[in-house]
Amino acid sequence: MSNHQATAQPSKLLQKIIILAVVAVLAAIGGISFRNQRLFKETVVSSDALTETRWLSDYLPSLKGTYSDTPIFVYDSGVEGGSVLYMGGTHPYEPACSLSAFIMMENIKVEKGRVFIIPQASYSATTSGILGNAYPVSFDIKTDWGKSTFKIGDRVTNPLDQWPDSFTYIHYPSGQSQAYQDLRNLNRCYPGRPDGTLTERVAFAVMELIRSEKIDMSIDAHEASLMYPVVGTYVAHDRAMDIAMMAAMDLSATTFDMKIEQSPGSLKGFTHREWGDYSDTLAVLMETPEPFIDRIVGPLTEDLMTEGKDLFLSFAGDKGLTFVPYSLETGWPMRTRVGRHLSGAAKVVEYMGMFFPEKQVIATWPSYKELQELDCGHFLHDPATADPDLVFKI
Amino acid sequence: MTYTVADVAIIAAAMVIAFVLSSKYLKSTEISMAASGVVGVAFAFAHGWTKEPIRLLVEGLFNNLDLAILFICASFFVNVYSESGALNAITRKLVKRFNSKWVLMTFMGVFMLIPGALTGAGSVSVFVLGALVTAIIRFMGVSDRKTAAFVFVFAILSAAAPPINLWTMLMTAQANMPYVGFELLLLIPILIVGAFTIIYVGWGAKRQSKEEILKVLPEANEKYDGAGGWVRILLPILTLLVLFILALVLPYDLPVLGLPLMFVLSTVVAILCNPGKAGLKDYYGMFEKTMEQVFPLVATVISVGVLQNSMAASGVKGLIGTAFVLLPFVWIYATVLLFAPFAQGSMSYGSAIVIGTPLIFMFNTAGLNTTVVCAALSLMFPIGDCLPPSRIVGRLTIEATGYQGTYTSFLKAVAAPCLLLGLLALIMLIYPNTFAFLA
Fold it and tell me: What is residue A83's three-state secondary structure?
């Protein structure tokens, strides 16, 4: 071996060691961040109207101990009436839905009937971000006592919990082919299967909750991109159309523009279709505008999530390419989106009572107007001073 | 709003410069893509748009991890199958049985369409049949360059072919459209381009005589003779096909295996069917060879993931999407055949989400048939699988066919069929309502 070779080899070895060390450091930093996101819990202080806490695994025991088991909060007035399910977190990258559920939980009063709230329906999907989208991990809401932090999750079940994907997803029971990753999308997996994939089992457990508790109205909260035609809309199952139509007209006349669409029969696996087809519930899905998830927005920042202001999207808005009005001055802030969901839910519940008096539920929570005036943080209570029995880390 | 158009444009320019300089001095496309990604994330961090720049880079490494695992497993299967002599044996049998050049080429084209059509991935067609098809087409007297073109074009056609077209599925999923009514809209242009490709590649090629071909081909192991021989030859590939089909027809009765595991199971069958005496050491050698072969491609898809995250975090992805959707319709028609394939080259299937979905909404507002629009776009994106920076199917084709010419000469060879595919798709995009009866 020549001297040159002798010195070249250690130098190459040194290069490899340095590269490995750099990779190890980067992997450790990234890994710690992934782990923190996986384990992070949101804090909620329930109102004292809470009567019971259940888990999704109560309706399908095989979910127990998995990252898809999620709490269900029950608010029972003790007065005979109807029952309502409000579900946030089907798609955790649409966080106004979970936040609206949290604000509902923190402030709800029930005078008649029962209200079930699932704030994080697809819990596993809250534990990772969407690959390729470079989302921030969380966002903060300023409160009267400090700040509260909430997660920005994925659209689908974390691959750590359900992997691999098939090369195509075939919906049960229709047999309709859908995009491969929708096998992990809760809102494509209804009515679900008790022995299916983890996501299908979550869907089945939600169906079991609706069926066994005889839920009269089920509301699934979502956010949509502004270039998506169904943004700012109720999508209602056939049997819930009259109620949703009246609620949309009422809201549009008095509070904010709300559109209405009938659930298309050809779209399989969605809440607005399968909840209604596979139970007696009146199924309604709500979409509120979320600029953050539009495909053409600029840098994906926490401010964009909370304020909804984006320059590129405003160009599309100016050209009439958005399906709700869009301006840079107002954006679509969190208070507006959460407020729409809270009043949107209240309105369909109100009309259900008018159409079906025996199913009436009388419950109150903060309204759109209150949110606009006081913002989200005002309705979140300080866990440090609250009754510990009502503080939950989810 | 915390940025200006200039901010994002500067970052885009910096990323391009980083890519060019890195390519020049480091001579590696993969490292250059990663370097470009690092520059984008660094700018995003400097602007205060992200608090966790390193997390974004690490997360990007996972974007295409499934694809990387698939490439490794599929390549290992092909190498094991090829080393067992089965590929050689089947080539000999086909050459003995069929005399017509056109019949053989048509068979090869149809064979190539099947794996990609069932899985949605053109790369699978290249992995499973690329080597076999190359051998047969070459014996038809076709030049190496046109042989590579044949394999590539049928690979992208297979990816676009029904029942599984991932671009369509992704766009319909994003737009909440049902994935129905696409069969004829996709199949008819694919059959036209397929027929054209066979003529384009085969025209003027002079088939060698059967004897000449057989003389050149290595002798097959005698255990490949007779009915038992056919079983040995076909069982590994049939295993794969049966697993694909079972996943489609019995989705509720079988666990989800995923493509990589299907290739692993087929590899086990290929090992059991090998009539030669290969030991653990030999298979380890094949695995090492596989990793050597597939490493550049794995590095590409992993680096593209970093670039994708960086483009999203820095707003460059939004800049590209905005620039495109703000164009008047006539300009979209004029530029979509450049935009869509290049988006595929840089974002892989992300192109369908970033470019495709906004376009569907745009065309919807104009009252145009979105099913036809979606199908048209789904026929344009696959063309980009030979374009930089990723060039995934293009590179796989070069690898599978052993083409020694320059990449530019390969691109020239695929240009005519790709252009025809693009033009057919463009006509569908311009006149979607005319083709609505096919939906």
Answer: strand
The residue-averaged pLDDT of A362-379 equals: 98
Instruction: Check CB contact under 8 Å for A166 and B51.
Output: no
Is the per-residue pLDDT at B102 higher than 80? yes
Nearest chain A Cα distance for residue B149, angstroms = 26
pLDDT digits (tens, 9 = 90+) for B26-47: 878 788 889 999 999 999 999 9
Q: What is d(CA B195, CA B150) in angstroms, rounded to the nearest whole number?
A: 11
A24 touches chain B (CB under 8 A): no
Touching check for B51 and chain A: CB below 8 Å?
A: yes
pLDDT at A1: 46
Q: What average pLDDT is seen over chain A?
A: 95
Which member of B56, B169, B258 has the closest CB to residue A179? B169
Looking at the complex, does the CB of residue B199 fall below 8 Å from at least one CB of chain A? Answer: no
Within 8 A by CB and 6+ apart from B119, the residues are A167, B164, B244, B259
Question: What is the number of other CB atoms lying within 10 angstroms of the CB of residue B371?
Answer: 22
Query: Half-sphere exposure of A329 toward its Cβ, with a 13 Å CA cutoff?
Result: 2
Residue contact B44–A27, C-beta within 8 A: no
Global confidence as pTM: 0.91
Which stretches within chain A are classed as H helix? Answer: 3-39, 96-107, 198-212, 241-254, 271-277, 302-307, 311-318, 334-355, 368-374
User: What's the pLDDT tens digit per position in A270-291?
Assistant: 999 999 999 999 999 999 999 9
In A, which residues are within 8 Å of B259 by CB distance? 164, 167
CB nearest A312 (choices: B120, B176, B318): B318
Nearest residue of B to residue A301, measured between CA atoms: B49
Instruction: Locate all alpha helices (DSSP H) within B390-406, ordered by sequence.
Output: 392-401
Region A47-56 average pLDDT: 98
Reported as a single tens digit per residue, the pLDDT across A162-205 is: 999 988 899 999 999 888 889 999 999 999 999 999 999 999 99
Q: With beta carbons less than 8 A apart as the criterion, state whether B112 and B373 touch.
A: no
Is A299–B1 a contact, with Cβ atoms under 8 angstroms apart? no
Q: Who among A132, A299, A310 is closest to B305 (CB)?
A: A132
The alpha carbons of chain B give a radius of gyration, in whole angstroms, of 23
CB of A129 less than 8 A from some CB of B: yes
Interface test with B, best of A15, A33, A94, A131 (most B CBs within 10 A): A131
Query: A232-241, B264-273, B359-368: lowest mean pLDDT where?
Result: B359-368
Mean pLDDT on A356-385: 98
Residue with tokens 């309709």: A176
| B313 to A296: CB separation less than 8 angstroms, yes or no | no
Q: What is the CATH number of domain A40-393?
A: 3.40.630.10
Average pLDDT of span A242-247: 98
